[in-house]
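Ticket #4471: structure export looks truncated?
Reporter: QA, pipeline team
Priority: medium

Steps to reproduce: submit the single chain below to the structure queue and open the exported record.
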Amino acid sequence: MEIFENPLFIVILIGIISSLFGRNKKDQEQQKKRKQAAKQIKQRVKNVSTSSPNEWNQIQNVHTGLSSQIKKAEKDKSNMKSFHNKNKKQKPSALHMHSAAKGVIWSVILDEPRSKKPHRSNFIK
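Actual output as written to the record:
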């Protein structure tokens, strides 16, 4: 067969086979990590369920304190957004833009004639 005589084809074939075996090793490592994480979670749940009511109350107090701080931070964030939105520059209305254009035109008309302010050329002398 001519295909198997080509060295490029053989290199590609070896690469594909080695990558397949490499994936199996990675999958096994990930499964081990997942099992360890599941065991840790189960142990934590056991510890929480067997803890005394005083510890449980302390945990709830910490949770309520943190949740109130989160709510306060969210409220401050929304207040800052509204403050920022109020202070944004408003777009000029069409009437303001029209009057500004008229002002520029009148300043050109009433200014000195162009002959009194000759155009400067940038020729090298």
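Status: closed, not a bug. The export was complete when the record was re-opened. Leaving a note from the reviewer for reference: Residues 7-50 form the longest helix (44 residues).
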